[in-house]
Structure formats: C-alpha cells, structure tokens
Amino acid sequence: MNEDVREDKFIRMTTRPVKGLVCSMAIPSIMSMLVTAFYNLADTFFVGKVSTQATGAVGVVFSYMTLIQAIAFFFGHGSGNYISRELGKRNVGGARKMASLGFFTALAIGALLAAGCFVFMRPILKLLGATDTIMPEAVSYFRYILCATPFIMGSFVLNNVMRMQGNAKLAVIGITSGALLNVALDPLFIFGAGMGTGGAGLATAISQTVGFALLFYLSGKKDGIKIRPADYKLSLSGLLEIGAGGLPSLGRQGMASIAVICLNNAAKGYGDSAIAAMSVVSRVTMIAGSALIGFGQGFQPVCGFNYGAGLYDRVKKAFWFCVRVATIAMSAIGLGLYIYAEPLIGLFRKDDAMLTKIAAAALRYQCMTMPFIGFVVMSNMFLQNTRKTVRATVIAMARQGVMFIPSLFILESIFGLTGIQLTQPAADILSFILAIPLSLSAIADMNRAAKKN
Question: What letter would DSSP give residue 190?
C-alpha cells in the first residue's frame, strides 16, 4: 500500500465531515448488500414459476445459507473491524496479517462444513424444515449450494475486509458481477436446460464462484491490502481479536439461521403454501433490511477509524446521523411495502391464492414495526465497532433470535398461523426496547473516556 495514499485515507477518514463521509461509504455498501439479497431473490422469483414446493425448497435451504453467512461475517467483520482500527492507528502490518487470518480460516471451515453436509444431506434438510413433498426439490438445489460453500463464505469475508478499509467501491464490483451472472443463468438453467430447482442452485453456485474470483483479484488493488498465504499465521490472539469483533455478527446471523429453521418447522404444520409464503416474505423484507445494513456498513469504517484515533465526538455525530436517516428511510419503505403487499407477493407465486393471503398479511404486520429497526441495527454496529462485544452481541442476537424464537412458540401456540405472522413484529419491538439502554450506556462510557483524555 502506497504510504502517501494511506496517509491521505487516514486524513480523509478522520477530518472530512462525517455526514458526507458516511454517505460516500454507504452508497457502495448499500449496493453490495442489495446485490447479495438479489442473489436469493432471483432464485425465489424464478423457481416460483416452477411450483410451490420449489419455492418452499429455496426457503428451506435459505436457513443453511444464513448459517454460512453468519460464519463468514464472523471472520469478515471480526477481521475487518480490527483492520479498520489498526489502520486508524497506522499499523498496516498488523492489518495485513489479520486479513489473511480471517480469509483463509473461513475458506477452510467452509470446505469442512460442505463436506459434512454432503454426507448427511437429507437428515439436515429434514431438520431445516423440508416436508416429504419439498424434499426432492430441496436436494436438487442444496447439492449445488454445498459445492459453492467455501467460495460463498470467501466472498463475504473479502467484501467485508475491503469495505472496512474504505474500499467498498471495489467490493461492489465483484458482488454485482456475480449477481448479474446469477440473474442471467437462472432462466437458462431452470427453463432452457430443463433443470428446474437444481438449475437455480447451479446458477447460484457458478455466479458466487465467479464473484469470489473477481473479489480476490480486486482485493489488493489501489490502496487495498493484498491477501497472501505468506501472511497467514494461525494464532490464538488473532482468533480472539476476530471473536471480539465478529461475535455480534455471528450471533445475529447465527440466530437468524436458527430462527428460519424454527419458522419453517412451525409453518410446515400449515402446509407447503405456508412455508413458501414465509420464504417469500423473508426475501421481500430482506431487500429493505439489506439496504439498512448497507447504510450501517458505511458508518462502520468511519466509526472504526475515528474510534481508533480517539476522535469520539466524530463517532457520536456519525451514529446519531445514521439513526435519523435509517428511521426515516425504514418508515418510508414500510409504508410502500404495506400499500403494495399483494402485487409484490404476486410476482413470486400468484397462482397460489393461499400463499398470497398468508404472505401479504405477514408482510403488512412486519411493515408496522419497520421504523424501529433502524435504531436497533445502528446500535448493534456502533457497539460492535467500538469493541463493546457483550452488548453488541446481545443486541445482535435479539431481533432474530432471543426475542424471535420465544415469541414464535408463544404466539403460534395462542394464535396459530396468525401468531407466526406476528412473530417478527413482536421481536422488533422488544429488540428496540432492549437496544436503548445498551447503546446509551456505551455512549456514556465514551464520554467518560473523552474526559480522561
């Protein structure tokens, strides 16, 4: 990395007005997250033209994809948060070693995980919520996803490591290229080659692998840190640093995976249409959630650099700016989704009236609590990047885990299918209430640290 370029980046990250800085970082991050969401959305859209069972199969496998994303985010966010702080301290050597540690360790774990799932494929799919009628479609889709697992995880790690260096624009090139390829290959394999649901899995596997290769090539360009095997050294201290920065992401995404599994198993008691309906709702709301997380990721490098440099006022100013923008944006998105719920659901599987009815109601319930989500997500990222690991992990695990899973079982037992539809809104409100004291206490800690300095 060129010394002059590195110094210019440090000056930019620690002196430029935070509102413009966050927005400049957020735009490519939002694009990257939206593109990632479209990977899954494209599969759901095209297989929806095949059958309700095919739509349900993608929803069942989605819980596995959420799990590998959780592991990848653990290494990507864990190493990336450390990298941004070290670059804020101008320690490039330590940042380079951490990048290699996070990347290569994630690749190895991805390969081992995929191999194990191949051996126990059908029992795993059963555990994930597949019914007997969904199982054949799920197997066809799952086997290709397993082949691409190391590359999917590697892409997430590279994306986060590049983004946390302030190189989100390069990261989005690799992610977008893979997504566009996926959209092109889906109809070609599903309908043109007559592969059905398996064609969607193959399209995703190929596109993710191509995206991974491009991200790896771009990772060391311009002022980015080049990831090299020579810099890899497995160490306990390095893994502990990854754990400190990545545990909240693992908690958030890991609990999301468990939540999807619980949701699928609860919904299958009401038929394949219920499983498929909740799968479609997850994809639609994922678009809004991905945009929110992308905006928050624009805040993360700003937070990490300035926290590492001891510029706490800039960290607070950036945080409250992000909370305001996120709340307004999610309120507007929620209103739009509420109004157009039925047409949106119909894009996926309009021939199944029961699916449309279940999904539209669930989507509208979730829209009512979207204004609360912005504060929850921004609080989580703020705590994660200021190394408040316990508090960050608690918030991260709340919305789709600690608050979601008990709410699912309680509400389903009382209200049946309506209870399942109400679960996510209930979890959102409870998570918002929890996030308030945890984030404000961290701001108070930072204020005390500023006075000591």
Answer: I
- Rounded to 5°, the CA angle 384-387-390 comes to 75
Residue in 446, 201, 206 with CA at minimum distance from that of residue 319: 446
Q: What are the pLDDT digits (tens) for 238-287?
A: 888 898 878 877 877 788 888 889 999 999 889 999 998 998 898 889 88
Q: Which residues contact 279 (CB under 8 A, 6 or more apart)?
A: 44, 55, 56, 58, 59, 60, 62
Rounded Cα distance between 364 and 345, Å, is: 11
Alpha-carbon distance of 307 to 14, in angstroms, equals 9
CA distance 46 to 180: 14
Rounded Cα distance, 403 and 258, in Å? 12
Lookup: tokens for 384: 């994660």
DSSP 214-241: HHHHHTTSTTPPPP-GGG----HHHHHH
What is the rounded CA–CA span in Å between residue 439 and residue 453? 21
Query: What does the pLDDT average to over 362-378?
Result: 96
Answer for the pair 199, 173: CB distance below 8 angstroms, yes or no.
Answer: no
Q: Give CA–CA dist 412/374, Å, rounded.
A: 26
pTM: 0.74
pLDDT of residue 114: 96
pLDDT at position 1 over 50:
no
- Only one residue has tokens 């989507």, namely 363
Burial annotation 120-157 (CB, 10 A radius, 16+ → b, else e):
eeeebbbebbbbeebbbbbbbbbbbbbbbbbbbbbbbb
**Angle, helix 353-367 to helix 417-452, in steps of 10 degrees:** 30
What is the C-alpha to C-alpha distance for residues 108 and 136, in angstroms, rounded to an integer?
A: 29
3-state secondary structure of 20: helix
